[in-house]
Amino acid sequence: MNDFLIILRQWDESASKALVAPPSMRNVLMWIEYTVNGYPWIIGSSLALVYSVSAYWSPVTQYQLVVLNFGNGLLSDLCCNAILKLSIQRPRPAYNINDQFLEAPVFDRFSFPSGHTTRAAMLATLCAAFFPKYRFAAAGLTFLVGLSRVAMGRHYLSDVLAGFALGYLEGLAALALPYSVTNWVRRILR
């Protein structure tokens, strides 16, 4: 079993290195990276949650539930990523250029899982549920985000694959949040 894991890790590292894009692609990949950077999403989801539980929305509307699901999903995504990154502490690839935008020094030193990819997959899962017309665009953006993380040398392929799976599960968990729990959260935050 140990030999299998060593072989798997070596394959992961060599496949990931082979996917690193040339420097001429870096600016394009940086823009893709910015689309799901953590800080804007933290601020945005926090503001959306505060607004959604305010007195302006009473009684609960379908739009409010969408905002609550997105907000809860984003906040849980950030927590899951922080816990996993600090627990596993997989170093980033050696060829990573340390030029990330608005990074969190404690969490962003580590590679597993890809937070950008989990966030994109979670958002795509919610988008597919609430806005089915845009599900293919959301899935395409999620794929591009995952590819960009490996192409920029930020992550190994396995970090991104785990990010896809974790983000999908986070999206399903946010969708499974019962109406009564949403109302309970709303009452607490008032």
From TrEMBL:
Q: Which superkingdom, per the lineage?
A: Eukaryota
- What Pfam families would the database entry show? PAP2
Keywords noted in UniProt:
Membrane, Transmembrane, Transmembrane helix
Among InterPro entries, the record links this protein to: PAP2/HPO (IPR000326), PAP2/HPO_sf (IPR036938)
One example of the protein's molecular function in GO is: sphingosine-1-phosphate phosphatase activity
Q: Which residues form the Phosphatidic acid phosphatase type 2/haloperoxidase domain?
A: 65-175
The answer to whether keyword Transmembrane applies is yes
Q: Respond yes or no to whether keyword Membrane is given for this record.
A: yes
The transmembrane residues are: 160-181
Q: Which Gene3D superfamilies match?
A: Phosphatidic acid phosphatase type 2/haloperoxidase (1.20.144.10)
Identification of the protein by name: PAP2 family protein
The organism encoding this protein is Ancylostoma caninum (Dog hookworm)
Q: In the record, what lineage is assigned to the organism producing the protein?
A: Eukaryota, Metazoa, Ecdysozoa, Nematoda, Chromadorea
